[in-house]
């Protein structure tokens, strides 16, 4: 089931809600704090928000790590409130980030837990391929991560 949920810019005032969602979504892996989200925004990274009414139900962020002529970007995070999953919100957030990267003709990288099949399949459907394995990438759980890459699209 897909629902249309407005996507707009993440605001510093959303940081506390993002941190709450992080604790729900990533309880065993050092979830980001509200300060971490504010720091990302203040650093000028591109973050998006999905909202149902006034409630933030999803967030996503990307940062450029290399400029032209071979621009590269990293997706830092994507999270969707469990009560709002399976509605296409994560995919819409991902596509919003990829549009930003494609505008700069950037290759995009990300890490995803090796046991997160749903996320990996979504990334693959959007053009990512597994290019590496990072053992014990997530802490403190020690979970492994796939490194994935997507070439820019014209």
TrEMBL record:
A Gene Ontology cellular-component term: ribosome
> Any keyword Ribosomal protein?
yes
Q: Which keywords belong to this entry? A: Acyltransferase, Cytoplasm, Ribonucleoprotein, Ribosomal protein, Transferase
- Presence of the UniProt keyword Acyltransferase in the record: yes
**E.C. numbers:** 2.3.1.266
Catalysed reactions listed for this entry: N-terminal L-alanyl-[ribosomal protein bS18] + acetyl-CoA = N-terminal N(alpha)-acetyl-L-alanyl-[ribosomal protein bS18] + CoA + H(+)
InterPro entries in UniProt: AcTrfase_RimI/Ard1, Acyl_CoA_acyltransferase, Bact_Acetyltransf, GNAT_dom
Q: Which residue numbers delimit the N-acetyltransferase domain?
A: 5-153
Localization recorded for this chain is:
Cytoplasm
Tell me any Pfam family this protein matches: Acetyltransf_1
Family, as annotated: Belongs to the acetyltransferase family. RimI subfamily.
> Its function?
Acetylates the N-terminal alanine of ribosomal protein bS18.
Supply the name of the protein.
Answer: [Ribosomal protein bS18]-alanine N-acetyltransferase
Q: Which gene encodes it?
A: rimI
């Amino acid at each position: 089931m897909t629902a249309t949920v407005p996507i707009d810019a993440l605001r510093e005032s959303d940081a506390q809600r993002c941190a709450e969602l992080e604790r729900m979504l990533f309880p065993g892996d050092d979830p980001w704090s509200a300060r971490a989200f504010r720091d990302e925004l203040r650093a000028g990274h591109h973050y998006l928000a999905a909202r149902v009414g006034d409630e933030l139900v999803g967030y996503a962020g990307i940062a450029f790590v290399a400029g032209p002529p071979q621009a590269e970007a990293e997706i830092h995070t994507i999270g969707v409130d469990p009560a709002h999953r399976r509605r296409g919100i994560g995919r819409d957030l991902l596509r919003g980030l990829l549009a930003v990267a494609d505008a700069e003709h950037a290759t995009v990288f990300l890490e995803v837990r090796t046991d997160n099949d749903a996320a990996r399949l979504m990334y693959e459907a959007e053009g990512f391929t597994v290019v590496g394995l990072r053992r014990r990438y997530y802490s403190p759980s020690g979970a492994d991560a796939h490194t994935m890459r997507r070439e820019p699209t014209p």
